[in-house]
Structures are given as structure tokens and as C-alpha cells.
Specification:
46% of the residues lie in helices and 13% in strands. With 293 residues, it is of the alpha/beta class. It has an 8-stranded mixed β-sheet, with helices on both faces.
Length: 293
């Protein structure tokens, strides 16, 4: 077993009981630019949640340049391009990853998938709501930046988790993403995750930099959700095409990711999907009709 600590297993059992009769949490994982470790966060967060007893579905929403499957060494025969073309159903392209996480794989190098119209994007979201799948988390690994699909899928989420690193372009682009989502698309609350920092102090300072600017110019609420350290174990796991929380469970970054997963378990269930995406939340609730708010 990847995690040896019996305390973690006891904690997972307690979380299973807490999770009973709860609706699904939908979390979009975003970044203003590429190269900040967003997809690694999405993949390892899904595995960490599964290690705690959750049933996450990881949706690779970088539809034309997906690489969730690559990070995990998986070779799906079909992907979401086959759903869009009508060749396969959503259920038929689902694949399993470590700790039995379920994954909706994106295409790679398929130009038409990177330029889907809003209706096709909405149809994908509706298809996820129609999945015959038992899940309690939907993690949406968004493309980097502020393309149309990022905006559509962000509106379908209850929480938007913005990953950024301590470099000027990352901070500037993360702010731009938050500004567009808040001013034009009704997203007002954001979780912020500093990644690849030297220590917690650097992570806190990075959050304060973006929060100070946002407080001055935007009508939003930002909340820091910890920090992830720069850790050679993560680079080694990427080379091995494994989740770091599974391959190196005691590495500093793995411990931080498990802490993040525990934090997410404690997030209250909210229903803030904006505008026309509200129907998506209704569909997910219909999958768990016994759930109460």
C-alpha cells in the first residue's frame, strides 16, 4: 500500500463517514499561464482524495492539448474527441488511474478540440452530469489562460482553485484570469494555491501580493489554501509518470498535497455555479437524490 501511516487510513475512514449523504463538490483548477504545475496539482489532488476514501472524477478540460494521461503513464484508446464526434459515449471513454480515480481524457494535438464553440462545451458538461458514475468530487483541470473553454468550465464549478508560482508573469496572468472571471462571468470567490515555493513564508508573501492588488481593484474574495513546496520528488515522479503522492508519499510536497486534500474535504458545499451553468449543479444533485444541503 502506498501510504503506510495507519493514522492516515483511520482519517480516511472518518472522512468516508463525513462524506455520506453529501452532494458532489465541483472544483475547477486554473492558472493564468502554463508551467506553474496546475495539472500536477490536479492529478495528485485526485489521487490524494482517493487515498482518503473519496471517489473523484478528473476531467482533463485542456481539450486539444490534454496531458493528464501522460503524467500518469496511461494510454487511453479513446478520448473526448470521440465523444464530440459521436463515436463514443462519455461512459465509454472513461479510464481508471491510480487508487481507482476515474479520468475523462482529453485529446492531444487535435486542433478542433481546442476551438470548440460554447454549445459543444456546454454539451460536454451536460454529458458529465449524465454519467452513470458514483462520484463525490469532480476536478476540472482547465487549460492555462483565459480562453473560452476556461471561462465556460469555470462557471460550472462551485470553487475555482487558482495555481500560481513566484514569477512575475504567473502573478500577472493569475490576476488577469481572476479579473476576467469576476467582471465578465460572475465568479466572485477564488481559492489561491502558491506552488513551487521555498517555504510557507514565501507562499504567504506570494498570496499577499496578488490579494493586495485584487482588494484594490476587484470585487472578489481570495482565500489562500496552503502552499506547495518546490520538491525534487515531484520532478522524479513526473519522469516516472506516477503521482508523487503515491510514489513518494513522505516527500514534503506529498504531505502538503494530502493536507490540501484534507482542507478541501472541510470546504462547505456551496452552489455558486454562475448563470446558465446552474443546470449542471442540478444534474449532479440528481445523481445523489438523498443529499441534503
Amino acid at each position: 500500500m502506498a501510504i503506510q501511516d495507519e493514522g492516515i487510513l483511520d482519517q480516511a475512514e472518518g472522512l468516508r463517514r463525513m462524506r455520506a449523504r453529501k452532494p458532489i463538490k465541483v472544483i475547477a483548477i486554473a492558472s493564468g499561464k502554463g508551467g506553474v504545475g496546475k495539472t500536477n496539482v490536479a492529478v495528485n489532488l485526485a489521487v490524494a482524495l482517493a487515498q482518503q476514501g473519496a471517489k473523484p472524477l478528473l476531467f482533463d478540460a485542456d481539450l486539444g492539448l490534454g496531458n493528464v494521461d501522460v503524467l500518469l503513464g496511461l494510454s487511453p484508446r479513446f478520448n473526448l474527441s470521440h465523444v464530440i464526434s459521436g463515436e463514443k459515449s462519455m461512459d465509454e471513454v472513461l479510464i481508471s488511474g491510480p487508487w481507482n480515480i476515474r479520468i475523462l481524457p482529453a485529446a492531444s494535438g487535435v486542433a478542433r478540440m481546442a476551438n470548440l464553440d460554447a454549445q459543444s462545451q456546454s454539451n460536454l458538461i451536460q454529458g458529465i452530469g449524465d454519467l452513470s458514475l458514483d462520484m463525490d468530487y469532480l476536478l476540472i483541470d482547465l487549460p492555462a489562460g483565459i480562453a473560452g473553454d476556461v471561462l465556460t468550465f469555470s462557471q460550472a464549478a462551485q470553487e475555482v482553485l487558482v495555481v500560481l508560482s513566484n514569477e512575475p508573469a504567473s502573478i500577472t496572468d493569475a490576476y488577469a484570469l481572476i479579473k476576467v472571471l469576476s467582471r465578465n462571468h460572475g465568479v466572485k470567490r477564488f481559492k489561491v494555491l502558491p506552488n513551487m515555493v521555498r517555504d510557507q513564508k514565501e507562499g504567504d508573501a506570494l498570496f499577499q501580493r496578488i490579494a493586495k492588488v485584487a482588494d484594490g481593484y476587484l470585487d472578489v474574495t481570495l482565500e489562500q489554501v496552503g502552499s506547495l513546496p518546490q520538491d525534487p520528488a515531484l520532478r522524479a515522479a513526473v519522469r516516472a509518470q506516477k503521482a508523487v503522492v503515491e510514489l513518494y508519499p513522505e516527500a514534503p510536497v506529498s504531505r502538503a498535497l494530502r493536507d490540501l486534500a484534507l482542507t478541501i474535504e472541510r470546504w462547505p458545499h456551496s452552489f455558486n455555479a454562475a448563470g446558465h451553468m446552474a443546470f449542471f449543479m442540478e444534474r449532479l444533485l440528481m445523481m445523489h437524490p438523498e443529499s441534503s444541503i
